[in-house]
Specification:
The structure holds 2 protein chains of 2 kinds. Chain A is built from 3 helices and no strands. The radius of gyration of chain A is 19 Å and the shape is rod-shaped. Chain A starts with a helix and ends with a helix. Helix content of chain B is 86%, strand content 0%. By secondary structure, chain B is mainly α. Classes of the chains: A mainly alpha, B mainly alpha. At the A-B interface, helix 1, helix 2 and helix 3 of A face helix 6, helix 8 and helix 9 of B.
Chain lengths: 82, 324
């Protein structure tokens, strides 16, 4: 089976897209979990501040999400643009 | 390639069988070692009830062992099972079956160690609650095994299905991708489910009256932590059961393989993260039972956000399968 150069480049881009999104999803998943675990702890200690703590948790998670979105962008670029 | 299909199948079966049992042994051994270590600490704290602790340790280790027994079954099937039809695609599917079960047993084995370890420590602390603790441990570690069971289902499908009508190119990418998707995604869910179950056993020991609230929160948290391995299963089923047109090019096969890798790795992080959230919530439900409703709400919101990257991974996988 002869593999042409263009086919090989396309295959590498597709594999790269999968690896980018796959590995890129690990960090934000674990990180956001830690944020929410600490938020649960804080609400357990001080239930009156639940609203404030939920807001802080969501902002922290949104920032931690950014690297996951970078991975998504890179893998969509590899799929459709490159 | 100058290799006949039968030799290719043998090579794949032996390599896959070795991989399944080798990786499958890792997780359960770590989990059981952790249990035994904590059991020793528990006995040193309260030597009078060493018999109860010892019994509980063995029960917990037996549950944690099941993940590696699934791996043993798949490995033995791979070594001795004669598939009726020989073909290169069948060889690829045997390799996929081995990788799926090998990775799939890792998380559940390690995860099941946490509830058994915390139960041993809990019995030393609250000997009166030992029955309640053991029941809670068995529920928690049984749920931890689900990702390993999902991996076994996919491996057995890959072992026993007849793929001879499917073209080798791009079929090999689909069957190996199917194995990797469920196998890798199961690592996170198994480990995460274990974190939640461990915290619930610790919580019941600390406050035996909170057992109802603690077990409910644990089960909800574990169920959410399982979703990423269910996404992995979904992608595997699509890869196994969808038919793909034959092509001479390499890229369609790589697209399917990449879809499996993407969903597999993408499921690890959210599975562990959701487990962390559930651990935090369950710990504090036991300490502050009045806030159980608040904690359940914040747990679900936190898990939903942490799940988002698994959903991105699933979207990219589905694009790789259906659009490219």
């Amino acid at each position: 089976m002869a593999i042409e150069g263009a086919d090989l480049i396309k295959a590498a881009a597709l594999l790269g897209a999968g690896i980018s999104m796959g590995l890129g999803a690990i960090g934000p998943g674990v990180g956001e979990g830690m944020v929410a675990a600490k938020a649960c702890e804080a609400i357990g200690k001080n239930p009156k501040e639940a609203g404030l703590l939920t807001r802080t948790m969501l902002v922290g998670q949104a920032v931690s999400e950014s690297t996951g979105i970078y991975s998504l962008v890179v893998s969509l670029l590899l799929l459709f643009v490159v | 390639m100058d290799m006949d299909a039968l030799s290719a199948m043998r090579i794949a079966a032996y390599a896959g069988g070795g991989f399944a049992m080798g990786m499958g042994a890792l997780g359960a051994a770590i989990g059981e070692g952790y249990t035994a270590a904590q059991a020793n600490i528990a006995v040193s704290r309260n030597p009078q009830i060493s018999g109860d602790i010892f019994k509980n340790m063995l029960v917990g280790q037996a549950v944690a062992e099941s993940a590696s027994i699934f791996a043993l079954v798949v490995a033995i099937l791979l070594l001795f099972f004669e598939t009726p039809s020989a073909g290169y695609i069948q060889a690829a599917s045997l390799m996929g079956a081995g990788m799926c079960m090998g990775f799939g047993a890792l998380g559940s084995g390690m995860g099941s160690g946490f509830p058994s370890a915390e139960t041993c420590l809990g019995i030393a602390r609250q000997p009166m609650a030992s029955t309640r603790l053991t029941t809670n441990m068995l529920i928690g570690s049984a749920v931890c095994q689900t990702p390993a069971i999902l991996s076994m289902v996919v491996s057995l499908l890959l072992l026993f299905m007849q793929f001879k009508d499917i073209p080798f190119q791009p079929g090999w990418g689909a069957v190996i991708g199917a194995g990797l998707s469920t196998g890798l995604a199961a690592i996170g869910s198994g480990y995460g489910g274990g974190l939640a179950a461990g915290a619930s056993c610790e919580g019941v020991a600390r406050n035996p009256n909170s057992v109802g609230n603690v077990t409910t929160t644990m089960l909800v948290g574990q169920a959410v932590a399982q979703t990423s391995s269910i996404f992995g299963l979904l992608i595997s089923f699509v890869l196994i059961f969808k038919s793909f047109p034959e092509s001479q090019a390499l890229s369609p096969a790589i697209a399917l393989l990449s879809a499996g890798i993407c969903m597999g790795f993408g499921g690890i992080g959210p599975g562990v993260g959701n487990g962390e959230v559930a651990r935090g919530a369950v710990r504090w439900v036991a300490r502050n039972t009045e806030s159980a409703a608040d904690l359940m709400r914040i747990m679900l919101v936190g898990q939903a956000v942490s799940q988002s990257t698994a959903i991105y991974a699933m979207v990219v996988s589905l694009v790789l399968i259906f659009v490219i």
